[in-house]
Amino acid sequence: xxxxxxxxxxxxxxxxxxxxxxxxxxxxxxxxxxxxxxxxxxxxxxxxxxxxxxxxxxxxxxxxxxxxxxxxxxxxxxxxxxxxxxxxxxxxxxxxxxxxxxxxxxxxxxxxxxxxxxxxxxxxxxxxxxxxxxxxxxxxxxxxxxxxxxxxxxxxxxxxxxxxxxxxxxxxxxxxxxxxxxxxxxxxxxxxxxxxxxxxxxxxxxxxxxxxxxxxxxxxxxxxxxxxxxxxxxxxxxxxxxxxxxxxxxxxxxxxxxxxxxxxxxxxxxxxxxxxxxxxxxxxxxxxxxxxxxxxxxxxxxxxxxxxxxxxxxxxxxxxxxxxxxxxxxxxxxxxxxxxxxxxxxxxxxxxxxxxxxxxxxxxxxxxxxxxxxxxxxxxxxxxxxxxxxxxxxxxxxxxxxxxxxxxxxxxxxxxxxxxxxxxxxxxxxxxxxxxxxxxxxxxxxxxxxxxxxxxxxxxxxxxxxxxxxxxxxxxxxxxxxxxxxxxxxxxxxxxxxxxxxxxxxxxxxxxxxxxxxxxxxxxxxxxxxxxxxxxxxxxxxxxxxxxxxxxxxxxxxxxxxxxxxxxxxxxxxxxxxxxxxxxxxxxxxxxxxxxxxxxxxxxxxxxxxxxxxxxxxxxxxxxxxxxxxxxxxxxxxxxxxxxxxxxxxxxxxxxxxxxxxxxxxxxxxxxxxxxxxxxxxxxxxxxxxxxxxxxxxxxxxxxxxxxxxxxxxxxxxxxxx
Length: 722
Prior knowledge:
The chain is an alpha/beta fold. The two termini are 22 Å apart.
């Protein structure tokens, strides 16, 4: 039997409490509702997978590459004829050579061959300012696209990989793995199904991928003179090129057949239609050393001449935005984040970003979201270090970090309204938290920004901005737990706990160890969790932090219950209750009162247990604490079931199910169904089987394997009895 209480929330006096409440929210992940029994509705994980459409748009001005396209076609057709393993084509070449354009152009021309979807990921293998994407992170991104209900995604990376390969098996899916670092990074992402096709782009030759997986190697060189000329003509029109043939010849020569370089040159020329092309060619010609680097073909410097020229043509305000965007951690940047980064208004920075998009220095890949090509981003960062006052760069990154902390805090309170606010300090000039209308907007913001928030927390830790590191750990907790990002939650709280050592705030250190302990417990690291809880408890006692002691006693009680020591669990929950009553914290006190009753029931003291839980139920109802009410109903149902009143117990469990459904807590629903099935098994085995089947579906969707196996055994026992 799944036993209670789970990580119950403490008082709204301390926001830590509700960060650890059961996952699920009405405004959170989408779930499907269906009728269970007697008018009660429960949420079940939506079955199956979805068809992903992750490909970025096809390049508008793609030119040439007929040989390469024919080679990709041949690789696909050969694999179909020979029924060979998964088709892998590795497109290799230097930065800016057009590998991604080639992959996307081919992919869009063959969408009909992949009716089950297309997956795309930029692995950032040669990103100058970000680490390469770890294979588990890429797999998680694929699962986000393939699985309708993220509650179905397991927390363990190896289980995620297994689920990913199961989902794509026998499906005709195209995967584009862009900008890979090496064969090892790619090998861990390959599906096992011969129906899938994988395109890999990389500056690495990917020899290992060829040797171990039989990848079709496709080197990509610079465009030939005629294709480079055709690309310029596509951008600028043949009339303009015909008017200045000598200048066009120089531009083609200086760009060395690099598609990105040619496109940037053409964009600049389009923005200044009255400027002769000869002037653009002259600017490139004058940068003698940079032209030599461009001719040398080094991936780090091929675009420097063109980029420096584009950069020099920007207004002072545009150049400042360009530099600062290049410094921002993470894979992309929202217009609201850019406003705080730059200190400009949202309207003002949006206008400048659009200008940077026009000259091909920035890409708008989604509504209100911007990113840079790897080499452009490197150049922008270099220009920031060279041309931007470093103290201003620091202040810009501080504003961005503060923007993330404040907006995350607002979003957290929206998805968990009972949370108490934490102190964020006085708002800095230029920092503009993003307004969020409701809980739905908060969920969307967290979903879009989670990876960037983790990157910014990492940057803040490196710069020793300890308060912001801790604030980001705190404000991310609810979202991470409810969405199943348990490993990221642990990473965030390891950083948060380390940062708390540098803050002159003992209660914060206590909170940090408590949250770190709970993060460990979420991943089954119970010994480590208990260790952190004990540190938190000792710290709270040393500091005289009575509220912190109360909260931590409850966490320690839960850890002891997980280890089967209900006597110790009862002792700590009683200490928590005593402290809450002394402090006058009624909400947390009602939770502790229920937990005391629960542990008493587990130890066989049913009369005392029933009295405690009945009092807790009244207190929860008086404060409209529906989550606490549902947990207390489970306790009362458990007591009735184990004292020979299964029908009364079933009524409690049904009311708990309804409450959990109302607040979107599918974890609590699974537990309540589990208990309801046990009660029904006494007098209605057929209905019990039906209810346990519902619990099994939820446990399986949540990857609670031990609980699922236990329910399967119960169902089998019923079958044997019938």
